[in-house]
Amino acid sequence: MKVVAFNRTLQGTGASRRLRKAGQTPGIIYGGAGVPELIALDGNALWHALKKEAFHGSVLDLEIDGKTQQVLLRDFQMHAFKQLVLHADFQRVDSSKPVHTKVAFHFVNAETSPAVKLNSAVISHVLNELEVSCLPGKLPEFIEVDLANLEAGNSIHTDDLVLPEGVTALTHGQNLTIVTATIPRGAVTAEETPAAE
To answer: Beta partners for 5?
Structure first.
């Protein structure tokens, strides 16, 4: 994804307030071999970009004065109630060095899983994203979690995932629970339903 930004020289609360009044969002780019750069972005374009999942988990092409550099969105602050992005932080990435970032899960086939079809189980998402390490070019937009074989009373853990090639989960030795399937109290499963006389 491409992001267009502009250099800014003024900093401080007053300068940032003036930028926002002009419809722009102050930001910063840091990391890599370069020095931190103060930037400004189109506030409305950034607001809409932040609604896209890919913007949060992809390597972005950030263009300033015709020059493009690869970055990751690292942090952003939103106004408490206005449709306004207050600040955005981007980190430069080196295509030859691994990045550590979080990637969102996409859950598929919940409605066809035995847990739901046979047992009317409730699927609970314990984790919605996973911290990974990989080269920028290998960074997946999302990680798919297939629930097609999930049985009632069972769960899926990080060790059960098939990650894309070159992507390593940073679970610090823990087999984290991603999703569980539990039968609600008092629910009658398909197997327990009495046969019609």
So the answer is: 41, 64
Residues ≥6 apart with Cβ < 8 Å to 193: none
Interior CA angle at 33 toward 30 and 38, to 5°?
30
- Residue 187: per-residue pLDDT: 57
Residue 54 φ/ψ, nearest 5 degrees:
-60, -30
Of residues 128 and 183, which shows the higher confidence score?
128
159: its two tokens: 């060790």
Nearest to residue 63, comparing CAs of 8, 139, 6?
6
- For residues 59 and 35, what is the distance between their CA atoms, to the nearest angstrom? 19
Query: Cα–Cα distances in Å, from 139 out to 9, 133, 187?
Result: 33, 8, 42
